[in-house]
């Protein structure tokens, strides 16, 4: 076998060799050792090969956080294929687009979203659908309990040759599978993550094995001054299809620690797991930390085992950080990153006091420039400018998006830089601070939501002639989504509820506007460009009045 650090599966297998009897994953209270996760992943990979999955084939992951997600993702790496993780709350609208854009020919889905898969199956060219129920790998008595007391969501599954039960996929031994994974070098693509932005459709970001391992190891060991990485027990509330959940949660499996995962965020379940399994790390977005602080049963649990609490996905309000430190006597550490940078660019160190509002210091694998967004000339230290990021193993381009690639990646002095479109500053000590965003994205519950994607869906409605979507500041979720809509002159009887329902049928729940306001016209520039900034300024003035 080649260098076991070259690719993800070999890195995990190395950890499994060293920590075979230790708990790798806790799922719904059930422990799975490193040796068991390794066996399940190898069996899954063997079954993929038997189904015809070949090297570099794309396999979609359309399931919630679970042991099945971990096994499938590792199994895909073992088979030499490329994982395409997406949120399980996508409807057929997004599923159809991403399946076609990525070229995925196989999909692992939950029984609860299997209906969407069947809806697009033939159109997108799926060859097989592997379907799992949430309790599939739990002990028989837990499966029976969940079924008898209706505690596990149930979905209808077809019985045909193109639909394979997940449990069947992991029953083999995994022996006899060609060692494709050892041939996967650090430049090979491991997965394609889809991210929002300014465009109508999500953009595919190819993440190589080398980039993932470099970034993940850097971020998962940030807490090493507080405890050894192999002793880490992480509450994985961040979704595994998101780069935050991967590099700050899933990556613990590369160092011998434990990941506690659950299919959805439930605060009492999180509190119970922290108390029961002595979790040391909690990963979350500002909305999660606010909900925890305001939970009326928080005092019933002992969360003293927590040593490292990390905030990503959005800027942490100072008030939440102060309340957290007062309540738990430990700070909330911040960081900044993007899917295109494979997570962290800056993170707050754990061996010193960090300034208020700081998003951390630069990580060793990254180089940055802070520049004027118009000229790309560097700005003086302490002055705000657009953040550009470079790394040796960086993403080179979006999948199938040459125009977006040209806008977001720029060559300067012989190096390729990713334009984050975020305005930051850095002080003389090297502490970074987030100032503003320059692009039309909405940060809702830690997700980046494209304004143009929402507008496009609204404008597909036969009664709509124009639409504008903006983020309205909100202490609980970062920004709430509000849409301003112009109806055709001859249309009557269309309500905001009708348009919200239209969006729910076509967008993931976190992208659906919470408010609709009807207008006779929308502000536009002389060349017809929609002026979202004017709408945002108007809403801000209204809030301050």
Secondary structure elements and their pairing?
Blueprint: H1 8-18, E1 23-27, E2 30-33, H2 34-51, E3 58-62, H3 67-78, E4 82-85, H4 92-102, E5 106-110, H5 114-124, E6 128-132, H6 140-148, E7 163-165, H7 166-169, E8 189-195, E9 203-208, H8 209-220, E10 233-236, H9 243-247, E11 258-261, H10 267-277, E12 281-284, H11 286-293, E13 308-311, H12 318-328, E14 332-338, E15 343-347, E16 358-362, E17 366-371, E18 385-391, H13 402-408, E19 409-412, E20 415-426, E21 432-437, E22 441-444, E23 447-450, H14 451-459, E24 464-474, E25 478-487, H15 496-504, E26 515-518, H16 532-544
Describe this structure in words.
With 545 residues, the protein is an alpha/beta fold. It has a domain at 442-544: 2-Layer Sandwich (GMP Synthetase, Chain A, domain 3). Strands 1, 2, 10, 11, 12, 13, 14, 15, 16, 17, 18, 19, 20 and 21 form a 14-stranded mixed sheet that branches. The protein has a 5-stranded parallel sheet with strand order 4-3-5-6-7, sandwiched between helices. Strands 24-25-26 form a 3-stranded mixed sheet, with helices on both faces. The radius of gyration is 23 Å and the shape is globular. The mean pLDDT is 91.
Keywords:
545 residues, alpha/beta, GMP Synthetase, Chain A, domain 3, 14-stranded mixed β-sheet, five-stranded parallel β-sheet, 16 helices, 30% helix, 27% strand
Short description:
By secondary structure, the protein is an alpha/beta fold.
């Amino acid at each position: 076998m080649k260098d076991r650090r070259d690719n993800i599966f070999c890195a995990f297998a190395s950890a499994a060799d060293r920590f075979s009897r230790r708990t790798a994953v806790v799922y719904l209270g059930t422990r799975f050792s490193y040796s068991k996760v390794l066996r399940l992943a190898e069996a899954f990979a063997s079954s993929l090969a038997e189904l015809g999955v070949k090297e570099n084939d794309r396999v979609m992951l359309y399931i919630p956080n679970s042991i099945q997600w971990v096994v499938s993702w590792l199994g895909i790496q073992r088979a030499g294929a490329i994982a395409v993780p997406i949120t399980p709350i996508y409807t057929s609208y997004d599923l159809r687009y991403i399946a076609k854009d990525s070229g995925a020919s196989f999909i692992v889905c939950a029984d609860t979203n299997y209906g969407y898969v069947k809806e697009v199956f033939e159109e997108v060219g799926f060859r097989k659908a592997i379907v799992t129920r949430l309790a599939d790998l739990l002990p028989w008595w837990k499966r029976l309990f969940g079924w008898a007391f209706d505690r596990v969501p149930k979905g209808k599954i077809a019985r045909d040759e193109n639909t394979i039960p997940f449990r069947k996929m992991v029953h083999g031994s995994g022996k006899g599978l060609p060692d494709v994974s050892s041939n996967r070098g650090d430049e090979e693509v491991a997965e394609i993550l889809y991210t929002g932005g300014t465009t109508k459709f999500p953009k595919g970001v190819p993440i190589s094995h080398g980039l993932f391992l470099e970034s993940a190891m850097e971020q998962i060991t940030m807490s090493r001054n507080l405890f050894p990485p192999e002793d880490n027990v992480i509450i994985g509330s961040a979704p595994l299809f998101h780069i935050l959940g991967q590099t700050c949660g899933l990556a613990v499996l590369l160092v011998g620690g434990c990941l506690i995962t659950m299919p959805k965020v439930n605060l009492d379940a999180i509190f119970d797991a922290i108390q029961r399994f002595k979790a040391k790390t909690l990963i979350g977005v500002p909305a999660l930390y606010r909900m925890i602080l305001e939970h009326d049963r928080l005092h019933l649990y002992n969360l003293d085992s927590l040593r490292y609490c990390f905030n990503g996905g959005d800027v942490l309000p100072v008030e939440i950080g102060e309340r957290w430190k007062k309540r738990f006597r430990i700070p909330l550490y911040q960081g900044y990153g993007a899917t295109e940078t494979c997570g962290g660019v800056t993170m707050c160190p754990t061996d010193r006091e960090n300034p208020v509002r700081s998003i951390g210091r630069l990580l060793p694998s990254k180089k940055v420039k802070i520049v004027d967004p118009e000229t790309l000339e560097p700005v003086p230290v302490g002055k705000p400018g657009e953040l550009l990021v470079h790394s040796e193993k960086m993403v080179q381009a979006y999948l199938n998006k040459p125009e977006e690639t040209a806008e977001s990646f720029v060559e300067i002095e012989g190096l390729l830089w990713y334009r984050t479109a975020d305005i930051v500053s850095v002080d003389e000590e090297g502490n970074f601070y987030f100032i503003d965003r320059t692009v039309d994205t909405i940060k809702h519950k830690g997700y980046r939501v494209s304004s143009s994607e929402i507008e496009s869906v609204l404008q597909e409605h036969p009664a709509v002639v124009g639409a504008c979507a903006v983020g309205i500041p909100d202490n609980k979720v970062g920004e709430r989504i509000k849409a301003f809509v112009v109806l055709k002159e001859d249309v009557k009887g269309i309500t905001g509820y009708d348009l919200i329902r239209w969006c729910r049928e076509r967008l993931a729940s976190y992208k659906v506007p919470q408010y609709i306001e009807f207008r006779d016209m929308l502000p536009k520039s002389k060349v017809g460009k929609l002026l979202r900034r004017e709408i945002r300024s108007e809403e801000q003035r209204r809030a301050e009045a």
